[in-house]
Amino acid sequence: MKKWFVWPVLLAGVLCACGAQPTGQSAVTLPMNTERPVVADLPADEAEPTPAAETTLTAADLTLEEKVGQLFIIRPDSLDLTLPQEQIDDAKADGVTELTDAMRDALQKYPVGGVCQFGKNIVDPAQITAFNAALQEASDIPLFISVDEEGGAVARLANKDTFDLPRYESAAAVGAEGIDAAYAMGQTIGGYLRTYGFNMDFAPDADVNTNPDNPIIGTRAFSSDAAEAADCAAAMARGLAGEGILPTFKHFPGHGDTAEDSHTGLAYSYRTVEELAACELLPFEAAAEVGPHAVMVGHIVVPELTGDLPATLSADAIALVPDAENTLIVTDSLAMGAITDSYTPGEAAVQALQAGCDVLLMPDGLADAYDAVLAAVQNGAISEDRLDLSVNKILRMKAQFCA
Fold first, then answer.
1. How distant is the alpha carbon of residue 106 from its chain centre?
2. Is 263 a catalytic residue?
3. Cβ-proximal residues to 103 (8 Å cutoff; 6+ apart), any chain
4. Is 293 a catalytic residue?
């Protein structure tokens, strides 16, 4: 039997920001905006009250297997259980572009919380709209359907010639124009993402581009000035959220001062905690003022803070996420070399959850990671209360963005 959200209409007009984090089996009222969330400091013409609704769906309503599944956002290719992991992870390999009956069955076996579409999964507007709709229909619980659509070099849809969408030179170029331009970019991207059935964007890039030798961030960041980067990232996020797209600030605790690419190995930041607080963490502080949002944690080693661990697996790093109890904390891809060089899929998934992450992004083997988290809860290595904290946070965000 499908467990759908129930949407009784409230008379209240304005969506509240996230409240205190629910714990354990407690039932909570999850605000639901049937059009788009109202977030802090939107322009007056964007801040009009919109109808809201509520649901009492919580972790207590799900089976253990469903709760574990909610933690995962995967590539849709992972639902084709015949594909080798190498093909799933390879951006240049053929990708799945429609939902088959076998993939529907896999979604029942591994009831994941969401999917992330990549260029190889996207053909044209009609195809991706139908694909996203089919995924939602096949899932017993609404899915996060996400994408990396930053604007600039990283734009899975706008950079395809089959889409007639605005293209941006870079976040840095937009940042040079100021916060109004950053807001407009978020609004534009959010508008077309929602049209195609997306509800989550792995943007804005909230890094501060301070290292000229950085091979992976560069002009993906809005600025080399921390305050400007913070203002523009927050503005873009408001634009996205105003169109019903959950924004994701990345890459905590800051990828801009690194000289390595975490796709292939660990990235290092030699900042002190005080230096991080004065620079890299400022955009994430600004994120806490935006309203409901996610933060993506990078595979970044900060020796003074994390020792030899990447931030993704470090409780000390996760503890620095501002307003963490109301922020959806997402790992960067667990299939990156920074993780796969040293950890099995199961080890990485369990340690990230133990460190305080809520969402486990694209493990290098869904079955192994899912089974490892399930076993960790069953044997007490992860308490069910700890699991429920993340699941309830996920459900709260879905109630607001997955209508």
1. 22
2. yes
3. 76, 79, 80, 96, 138
4. no
Report the amino acid identity of residue 336: M
Q: How far apart are CA 279 and CA 46, in angstroms?
A: 30
- Give the active site residue among 332, 358, 364, 388: 332
Q: For residues 403 and 199, give the distance between their C-alpha atoms in angstroms, rounded to a whole number.
A: 9
| DSSP letters for 80-113 | -TTS-HHHHH-TTS----S--HHHHHHHHHS--S
The dihedral through the CA atoms of 186, 192, 193, 194 has a sign that is positive
Cross-strand partners of 10: 52
pLDDT tens for each residue of the chain, 403 residues long: 344 444 332 223 322 333 333 333 333 333 333 333 333 344 434 433 333 345 468 999 999 999 999 999 999 999 999 999 999 999 999 999 999 999 999 999 999 999 999 999 999 999 999 999 999 999 999 999 999 999 999 999 999 999 999 999 999 999 999 999 999 999 999 999 999 999 999 999 999 999 888 778 999 999 999 999 999 999 999 999 999 999 999 999 998 888 777 787 888 999 999 999 999 999 999 999 999 999 999 999 999 999 999 999 999 999 999 999 999 999 999 999 999 999 999 999 999 999 999 999 999 999 999 999 999 999 999 999 999 999 999 999 999 999 7
Catalytic residue among 80, 261, 263, 323: 263
Helix, strand, coil percent content, the chain, rounded in steps of 5: 40, 10, 45
Residues in the chain: 403
- Residue 271 · residue 254 · CB < 8 Å: yes
Which residue type occupies 164?
D
Residue type, 3: K
Check whether the bond before 251 is cis (ω within 30° of 0): yes
